[in-house]
Amino acid sequence: MDISLVVNITAKAWALPILWNLDAGVPGRQAPLLAATGASRTAFGHSLNHLIQLEIIERNPGYGHPLRPEFRLTKLGETAASLASRIRAATGDEENRLLRRAWTVPILSQLAEPNSFGAFKRQLPMITDRALSQSLKLLETHDWVVRDVDVAARPPKPIYHAINEGALISQAASYALNTVP
Questions:
Q1: Which pTM does this prediction carry?
Q2: How many CA atoms lie within 13 A of 9 on its CB side?
Q3: In the beta sheet, which residues pair with residue 158?
Q4: ∠ CA 100-181-97, rounded to 5°
Q5: Is residue 76 exposed (0-12), middle (13-18) or buried (19+ Cβ within 10 Å)?
């Protein structure tokens, strides 16, 4: 799986919860998925349409009413849903809000090994400096990332490491990025 696809999937807040619920066996109709995710109708609809545009979810032909369609995972969607389930298994219920943020999973996927700010910019060229800085600070406050300063380097530079749930998510995401085509 490509990092740009992970970035695109996580661009909508409820995409990962939709995927992990489909992987967990929640029926592919809107009402059960909406109830399982806890999203508002509007945000849920935007995330669902986003996943359809990415060809991760498709309408199940021949099933459901035209006004209440049933959805299913595509081949790519099965891989993405499996990744979402592994990420969900690594966190507690109160951490779901952090997983719904756009850059959490892409940043953690790049922390299989310690990384510097510049390395993040090279690996995630689409992220702005501000978004990266704010995301790293937020992950630090939740104890998913720790920042150490390499004083041997000139000038000294901060190095980021994944810890606790962040390390578990990092392992799951980097595994999917490195093994799935």
A1: 0.84
A2: 27
A3: 149
A4: 5
A5: middle
1-89 CATH, one of 3.40.50.1010, 1.10.10.10, 1.10.287.130, 3.40.50.720? 1.10.10.10
- 62-108 confidence digits (pLDDT tens): 766 666 788 999 999 998 998 888 888 877 666 678 888 889 999 99
Give the SS3 label for residue 126: coil
Omega within 30 of 0 (cis) for the link into 158:
no
Give me the pLDDT at residue 41, please.
92
Question: Which distant-in-sequence residues (6+ apart) come within 8 Å of 61 by Cβ?
Answer: none
Rounded average pLDDT over 173-177: 74
CB contact set of 123 (below 8 Å; sequence gap of 6+): 3, 110, 115
